[in-house]
Specification:
single chain, Aldehyde Oxidoreductase, domain 3, Aldehyde Oxidoreductase, domain 4, 3 domains, 17 helices
Length: 735
C-alpha cells in the first residue's frame, strides 16, 4: 500500500487522455437508437404579449413528430432562486394558473415552442413555420429607467417595483468619517456584460432509462438542483427524474441555470423516445444569462497619513428579465464593495433591477469583479491624491485578523491580504520610487505603465445557507485494500475537480490513485454535492471525502468487508444580512488575491497590450499545484477578455453581438505575454488539509490592475471598460 503523500503533487488530470484523444463524449456527442431531434423557437423580441401561437403548419411538416407550447407544460415556471420564468411563453389553457404570467416574453431568448422531428434539419425547418401573434410592449433596457416609480412593471406579481434585489450596509457614521477625511475621491463606474463563451453550447439528450427514470444527460453545475427544477415544472416526483452529466465543455457559472433540460425532459416523457438538442452559438449567446452589467458610484475618504476613514457606495445591477442568481451575485458585490480593506465607516446601497435585457447570471467571480473594479480604482485615485505609492497605501489599509468587514463582523481567519500583496509586489519587483509619466509623456506613441490591484471573495455559499456536501467511499480487498470506489456527484466543468478528489481520497486512505474508481455526476446514484460554483468544490468535497474515508478505514480495521461509509460534511454556519444594516457573518471562508501588471498603450491606435502579469493567490494548500497554475492562467486570460476585447452590445434589449465574429474573444495573439503565478499557502483551519478555493480568485483584480496601468502610462483614468481602442482614444481626447 502506498504511503507517499498525494497532497501537493501535480499529478496528471484523470480526464486528460480522453479529452485530448477525442474519446470523451460531451452532451452534443451523445446518441441513442431511435433518437429524435429538437429545435426551439425563440421570441427574438425583448418584451411582448404572446396573443396566439399557431403550430398547425409545423405539425404537418415533413418528419415532425410533435410540437409543444406553453399549454403542454404542467407547471410553467422555473428558476434557481425563485420560479419567475416560464418554460415556454404563451397563452395558458383555460382555468390553469401558473406561478408566473406565461403569456409575456421579457427578453429575446425567451422560448415559445419546441419542435421534435426525425432530423435536426426537419426540426429547424418546421420551427420557422410556426406563426406567433405578438403585441409589443414598452422595452426597459436601462436599469436606471426601470427603477423609476412610473416604469412599467415586468413582474407585477412580485411587487410594485422592478427592483428585485436590495441590500444595505450601515457601519459607523460616514458623515463623521468624511468630516475627518483630508482627501475625498468620488467616481462613477460602469462594468460590462460578459458572455461565458464555453466551448460547447447548450446541448443534451433525454430518454427513459432501464429503470423507468426520466433521464436528462446535459451539462450543468448541480445535478440535484437540475433534477429539482425539471421535476417541479413537469409535476413529477424528484425520484422519477435522473440527471447525468457527461463531459462538460466549460461552465464558468453559465450552466447553473437551466436552458434545454426541461423541454428535453418534457418531450422524452411524452414520446417515450430519446430526444437530442444542440444549440447554435447564436442561440447560446441570446438564450442564456450573462455577467451582470453594473453601474457603481463611490465616494471614499482618507486621512493624510493614508488611512481609509469613510466609504459610501451605490451599486445598481442590471438583473435582466429574470432573477437567476442576481440576489446572490449582488450580495457578493455588497460584501466586496469596500475591497479587502478595513474601513470604520461604511454606507452602501445595492439594487438589482429587472429589465428586458438578457438575464444577469452567475459568472466566475460572482459579483466581486464589478465591485472590486470600483473599489480598486478608488484606492488608486486616493493613493495618487495622497502622493503615496499605491501598494504601500493598500498595505496600510489591508484587512488583518480581527478587523471587521463592511458587514460589521471580522472575516474568518487567517486573513492573508497582506501576504498576497507582498508576494505580488516582490515577484513583480515593484519599487516605490517609480515616477508616473510627465504630461507630455515623450516623443513615442507607445507608452508603458504598471498597475496593482487586490481582491477577495467568499469560498462556498453565503447568507445563512447551511452549506453541505456528500461523499461515499467503498474499500474492497482481503488483507490489503485492492480497490476503492469513490462516489461523488460533483460536476467536472474543466477545473480539475475529479482529479483532486481522487488525490484527496488517495491521501486520506494511504493508497495509490490508480486503484481508485470514481463514480460521479449522477443524481440517481449519489447524494447531494451542492453546486460546482462559489469556488467551493475542493473545499467541500475534500471534507466530505476525508470524513467518508476515515469512517471506511475504521470499518476496514474492524474487518468489515467491503468497508462502505457515507459522510455528509456541514460547513461552519453563516448568517443572513440584517435588512437595515447588513450586519452578518455571511461567509465561513474567504480567499485573497493580488496582481501587478505591465501594459503598453499605443496612443495612435488606442490598443492596449498587456506585457506581464504577476498573480499571487492564497490557495490555503495547493492540492495539485499544476492545476492551480492552470486555473490562474485561465482566469487571467478570461479576465483579459473581460477587460479589453469583449464588448457585448445591445440596443433596446436586442443583442447586436450575437456571433463570435462580432463578440471578440481574445486569441493567443491577444493575451498577456507572460503570466507569473505565485501560490501563497496560508492554511484555512476548516479546509481539507488547509485548502481554500481557487477557481474564481485570479479573475477578480485584473480589470482594475489594467485600468491602473493604463492610467500610469497615460495619466488618464478610464472608469468604464472594456478598454477598447475607441474607448482609450476617446479618453485621450483623440476622437
Amino acid at each position: 500500500m502506498a504511503t507517499e503523500p498525494m497532497i501537493g503533487r501535480s499529478i496528471p488530470r484523470v480526464d486528460a487522455h480522453g479529452k485530448v484523444t477525442g474519446k470523451t463524449l460531451y452532451p452534443g456527442d451523445l446518441s441513442m437508437k431511435g433518437m429524435l431531434f429538437m429545435k426551439i423557437l425563440f421570441a427574438e423580441r425583448p418584451h411582448a404579449l404572446v396573443k396566439k401561437v399557431d403550430t398547425s403548419r409545423a405539425e404537418k411538416a415533413d418528419g415532425v413528430v410533435a410540437v409543444y407550447t406553453s399549454k403542454d407544460i404542467p407547471l410553467n415556471e422555473y428558476g434557481l432562486q425563485i420560479p419567475d420564468q416560464p418554460v415556454l411563453c404563451g397563452p395558458s389553457p383555460s382555468g390553469r394558473r401558473d406561478g408566473v404570467r406565461a403569456d409575456i416574453v421579457r427578453f429575446v431568448g425567451d422560448q415559445i415552442a419546441v419542435v421534435v422531428a426525425e432530423s435536426e434539419v426537419q426540426a429547424e425547418a418546421a420551427v420557422k413555420s410556426i406563426e406567433v401573434e405578438y403585441e409589443d410592449l414598452p422595452v426597459l433596457s436601462d436599469p436606471i429607467t426601470a427603477m423609476k416609480p412610473d416604469a412599467p412593471l415586468l413582474h407585477p406579481e412580485r411587487g410594485n417595483s422592478n427592483v428585485c434585489v436590495r441590500y444595505k450596509i450601515r457601519k459607523g457614521s460616514v458623515d463623521e468619517g468624511f468630516a475627518r477625511a483630508d482627501v475625498i475621491v468620488e467616481g462613477e463606474y460602469q462594468t460590462p456584460v460578459q458572455e461565458h463563451a464555453y466551448l460547447q453550447p447548450e446541448a443534451g439528450l433525454a430518454y427513459i432509462d432501464e429503470e423507468g427514470h426520466l433521464t436528462v444527460a446535459a451539462g450543468g453545475q448541480w445535478t440535484h438542483a437540475d433534477r429539482e427544477g425539471i421535476a417541479h415544472a413537469l409535476g413529477l416526483p424528484q425520484e422519477k427524474v435522473r440527471v447525468i452529466y457527461p463531459a462538460i465543455g466549460g461552465a464558468f457559472g453559465g450552466r447553473e441555470d437551466l436552458s434545454v433540460q426541461i423541454v428535453l425532459a418534457l418531450a422524452a416523457w411524452k414520446l417515450q423516445r430519446p430526444i437530442k438538442i444542440i444549440w447554435s452559438r447564436r442561440e447560446s449567446i441570446i438564450g442564456h444569462g450573462k455577467r451582470h452589467a453594473v453601474i457603481l458610484k463611490a465616494k471614499w475618504g482618507a486621512t493624510k497619513d493614508g488611512k481609509l476613514i469613510a466609504v459610501e457606495n451605490e451599486i445598481i445591477g442590471d438583473g435582466g428579465a429574470y432573477m437567476y442568481t442576481s440576489n446572490k451575485v449582488l450580495g457578493n458585490s455588497t460584501i466586496t464593495s469596500t475591497g479587502p480593506y478595513f474601513v470604520p465607516n461604511v454606507k452602501t446601497d445595492v439594487y438589482g433591477v429587472y429589465t428586458n435585457n438578457v438575464p444577469g447570471a452567475a459568472f466566475r467571480g460572482f459579483g466581486a469583479p464589478q465591485a472590486l473594479f470600483m473599489a480598486e480604482s478608488q484606492m488608486g485615485k486616493l493613493a495618487e491624491k495622497l502622493g503615496m505609492d499605491p501598494v504601500e497605501f493598500r498595505l496600510r489599509n489591508a484587512l488583518r485578523d480581527g478587523d471587521t468587514l463592511g458587514v460589521g463582523t471580522p472575516a474568518p481567519g487567517p486573513v492573508s491580504v497582506v501576504q498576497v500583496m507582498e508576494a505580488a509586489r516582490d515577484k513583480f519587483n515593484w519599487t516605490t520610487d517609480h515616477r508616473p509619466p510627465t504630461a507630455d509623456h515623450s516623443q513615442s506613441a507607445i507608452l508603458h505603465g504598471r498597475g496593482f490591484a487586490a481582491g477577495f471573495k467568499n469560498v462556498g455559499f453565503s447568507f445563512g445557507y447551511q452549506e453541505n456536501c456528500w461523499a461515499r467511499v467503498e474499500l474492497h480487498g482481503n488483507g490489503n485494500i485492492e480497490r476503492v470506489v469513490l462516489s461523488h456527484a460533483s460536476a467536472e466543468v474543466g477545473q480539475g475537480t475529479h482529479t483532486v478528489m481522487i488525490q484527496m481520497a488517495a491521501h486520506a486512505l494511504g493508497v495509490p490513485t490508480d486503484i481508485i474508481e470514481l463514480k460521479t455526476s449522477d443524481s440517481a446514484a449519489q447524494g447531494n454535492p451542492g453546486s460546482v460554483s462559489a469556488s467551493r468544490m475542493t473545499f467541500m468535497s475534500g471534507n466530505a471525502i476525508k470524513g467518508a474515508a476515515e469512517a471506511a478505514l475504521a470499518k476496514w480495521k474492524a474487518e468489515e468487508r467491503p468497508s462502505i461509509a457515507e459522510f455528509k460534511y456541514l460547513a461552519p454556519p453563516t448568517t443572513h444580512m440584517d435588512e437595515e444594516t447588513g450586519y452578518s457573518m455571511p461567509n465561513f471562508a474567504y480567499a485573497y488575491s493580488a496582481q501587478a501588471v505591465e501594459v503598453e498603450v499605443d496612443t495612435e491606435t488606442g490598443h492596449v497590450r498587456v506585457l506581464r502579469v504577476v498573480a499571487a493567490d492564497d490557495v490555503g494548500k495547493a492540492i495539485n499545484p499544476g492545476q492551480v497554475v492552470g486555473q490562474i492562467e485561465g482566469a487571467v486570460v478570461q479576465a483579459h477578455g473581460y477587460a479589453i476585447t469583449e464588448d457585448f452590445i445591445t440596443k433596446d434589449g436586442r443583442v447586436l453581438t450575437d456571433q463570435l465574429s462580432n463578440y471578440l474573444l481574445p486569441t493567443i495573439l491577444d493575451i498577456p505575454e507572460t503570466v507569473e503565478s505565485v501560490l501563497v499557502e496560508v492554511p484555512d483551519p476548516n479546509g481539507p488539509w488547509g485548502a481554500r478555493g481557487i477557481g474564481e480568485l485570479p479573475f477578480l483584480p485584473y480589470a482594475a490592475a489594467v485600468g491602473a496601468a493604463i492610467h500610469d502610462a497615460t495619466g488618464v483614468w478610464i472608469d468604464e471598460f472594456p478598454f477598447t481602442p475607441e474607448r482609450v482614444l476617446r479618453a485621450l481626447g483623440k476622437i
